[in-house]
Every structure is written in structure tokens, then in C-alpha cells.
Amino acid sequence: MVLRPLVLSAALSFCLSGCIINVNGAGKTSFDYHRTSELSLDANGLDGLAAETGAGALTIEGIEGLNEITLEADIYGYDGVEPELTLVRDGDQAKLVANFDSFYRVSFNGSSPYMDVTIKVPASMLLDIDDGSGSIDIKGVNADIRVKDGSGSLNLDGGKNLVIDDGSGSIVLTNVDGNIDLDDGSGSIEVTNVKGDVVINDGSGGMSIVDVAGKVTIDDGSGSIEVNNTQGLTIIEAGSGDLSFNNINGPVSMN
């Protein structure tokens, strides 16, 4: 078996135009090091951000009139286990990697290494997020958003068309300017104020769907379902749990 060498890719970003990194040492009891890093990239000519992130909290804020992408990372790790942190231009996309090397195998006595990442982007920037674990908070983005998430809570305020593939953790989606296509494994779901259609395929966990300008379609394994104020409702499978709906201003179909 060939092992990929470990590289602190953030250090390589010094040679990239528009990227600035500052690293400071600070102690934390259960880790060998705590580093804070900053990256930036000129957003002119960029339509979207594709991000591959691992363990740790991820926060993304869309800001009107912003002409660059900025990133701040808090990195907690162990000696000999180095992170990969890069932000580069690839055609009309920005590509972010914020992860610990997936080929490194080690047994940790305490917590596994992780990075908490905060990103600011132009509000009109498309987002394509592939996240491992940890909470995700996105606000202020008025473009299409795709999220593939392993575990951890997801809170999203804004966006146009949303496509979400989630493993586990609570989900809150609000003020969405388009359609929602949500495939969820487990965890509670709360959806409010959507201007398009909502399609949910859910394994387990209660859900509340309120104020949807389009139609709602639900395929559910288990957990309570509450739907209020939509333009139509289709229940493919309700599974187990209470079902209630009110103010459905369109056809209601239950299989």
C-alpha cells in the first residue's frame, strides 16, 4: 500500500496570489497545538465556491458587495498530524479544502483533530459543500446551495434552490427563495418561509414545515409530521408518528 505523504497545504498557499496566512501558537489541554490561519482570494470572475471540509464547525456568511472570499480557521491537532488547508482559483470556481489528511491513521487518546472554519463570500456566490462532521451555519447567501453532510446540525437562512443530502443531525431551513430537495437520514427538520416547492425524503425524526408558497412532498420513515400553509401536499409514506396538516391551499394526496 502506498501512503500519500502528509502536507500542510496551507503553507503552500503563500505562493498563491491573493492568499494570506497567519499562524499563531496557542495551547489547549487536550491537543498538542492550536493554530489560527487566515486565507483570502479575489472573487472577481468567480461564480461559486466548492468546499471539502472535515471535522469541525463550518460557518459561511454571504455579504452584498464583497469582492473577495475570506477565511479564518481555528485548528486543533497533534504533533505529526498536519492539516490540509487551501483556497485556490479553478476556472470560475473557488476551491476550498479544510481537512486533516484522510490517509493518516492514528489512535487518539483524547479528541480527534478538527478545524473550526468561518468563511465570508459574496452574497451571489453559488455554494457546493461536502462536509464530514460538525455544525454548519449558512446565512446571507442568495444563490443556489448544495450541501452533502455526514453528521452535525445544519442551519441555513437564505439561499435559492437547495439540494441537501444529510446523514444525521437537526436541520433548520428558513427564508429560501426557491425549491428545497432534502434527503435526510435522522434528526429533526424545521422548514419555514419557502417560495418554491419542498421535497423531503426522511429516515427518522420529527418535522415541521410552515409557510411554503409551492407544493410539499414527503416520504418519511418515522417521526411526527406537521405541515401548515402550503399550496398542496403529497404524503408518499408517513411511517410512524403523528401527522397533522392545516391551511393546505391545494390538493392533498396520501398513499
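^ that was protein a. below is b, sequence first then the C-alpha cells
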Amino acid sequence: MTLLCVTLVGCKETVKENETDSEEKIGVVEKAITATALISAKSNSAVKGTVTFTEKEGKVFMKANFTGLTPGEHAIHIHENGDCSADDGSSAGGHWNPTKEDHGAWEHKAFHKGDIGNLVADENGIATITKETDLWCISCEDENKNIVGKSIVVHKDLDDMKSQPSGNAGNRIGCGEIVLEQ
């Protein structure tokens, strides 16, 4: 009889440990990490915007909202430096390209990890764009994926997806550093 009681208590404790492990795993899986870039005007433009990145379950979701654009298409890229201090945005450096690929269209043959693509501003100068990828991460240790400390740059013209090294996208009209939210 004593042996049976010990066995039941042992089983009961094991079940509790498994429940705790499951709860901890669920908490980790559900936790999202966020980074933001506040876009300010460059090259005498009126561009303003916010780009929010949220990482959850191994994917980064980007949502960008802009105002003050001229109607039409504009390139948007991640650039290598989180420095937007220059009036023309040149302090942001070139496209973020940790794998040293040619410039191109996102996920078609060769492309920079910073080659987001084009957004379209309406007649009021308002534009939004979204993206989802597992090629980026927020504040991870993999420098080939980590977007924190880089910048978002909006260009005057559209990205032709082929001209090297930057898609012939024209002046930088908006820039903001990607910063980890605390």
C-alpha cells in the first residue's frame, strides 16, 4: 500500500512539472519583439512616417505608413547605417547587403536583404506598405538578419529592381533609424 501511494505522488508531481514546462513554452512563443523607425524628411521633402517591425514565432512583420510624398511610386529600403543625420540622408550609407548580393527584386534571384521594394502614394501623398519575412530578425545575434541599428530610407523615385547598386531610385527623401522598443 505504501509503495502504491509513493508511485501516485511521483506521477502527480511529474504531471505538474510538465504543465509548468508547457506554460513557460507558450509564454516564450507568444512574446513579440518590436522595433520602430520614425521617418523624417530629407532633401527638402515633406515626408514623415512610422515603420514598425514586430517579430513573432521566427517571422518579422513590417508595417509602414507615410505622409508628405508626391503621388506615385517610391522605393523603400533598409540601409546599412542607423544614421540619418545628413540633410540628404547619405549618412545612412548604402543598402543593407550583409550577404553581398546584387541589387534586385525581393526574393527573386539575387537581392539585398534591404531591398524592400516600392510603395505607392495616393493623390494625397499617403502610402502604406507591409512585408513579412523570416530573413530578418529584431535584435538577434545574427548580423546577416538583425535589422536593429540600420535605417529605413524612402527615395524620390521608384526602384527599377535591376540597376546596380541601388535600383536607380533617386534622392533620399525620408530616413529613420530602426530602434528596439523597450
